[in-house]
Amino acid sequence: QKEVEQNSGPLSVPEGAIASLNCTYSDRGSQSFFWYRQYSGKSPELIMSIYSNGDKEDGRFTAQLNKASQYVSLLIRDSQPSDSATYLCAGGDEKLTFGTGTRLTIIP
Amino acid sequence: GAGVSQTPSNKVTEKGKYVELRCDPISGHTALYWYRQSLGQGPEFLIYFQGTGAADDSGLPNDRFFAVRPEGSVSTLKIQRTERGDSAVYLCASSLTGQAVLNTEAFFGQGTRLTVV
Question: In whole angstroms, how far apart are CA A99 and each of A89, B30, B69?
Fold first, then answer.
């Protein structure tokens, strides 16, 4: 059974600070990892993908992958109230296995 | 279309009835996925199509659930003899090749909220 686990939160971060979201996975063979953002009542929206060890930056978002530790993280710099959402970590090379999500609230 | 389209957006049905949920993927995407999401949970994989064929249906919970994609584009998820426990948001996603390691990501439709009463 492939599993993806996230710290369930909820996580509250002041506006302008860095939000850090973490995820571990059990399938050592997985090569592809994704972070989706999901607003309440909406469908998941892809924000980051990462396939190799190290960091990948896209604007205020940085994804980090450590395959040896089976660990994926997402950093959101200069957090904005519009970043308040549930963040889903997913892994898999065809079908995706999702974590349960971390609910993030940015406090103005 | 520009994105993945799912219809209906909401469906209320009585226990024991049959329902069909439709997904129209992004044009040109060969891979299509169905997921189910319950409140407070992440999406749960149901079935994956590569073209017209079901490449992996290991997530279908039982034989009341069936999905087709006859022409390799639109897909229909069919649920027979619905039960209250089937109530959830059913999400469809598509990707260009289905091989995420080739840097092709999956994009979700807005979902169908199914309520069985």
Answer: 5, 25, 27
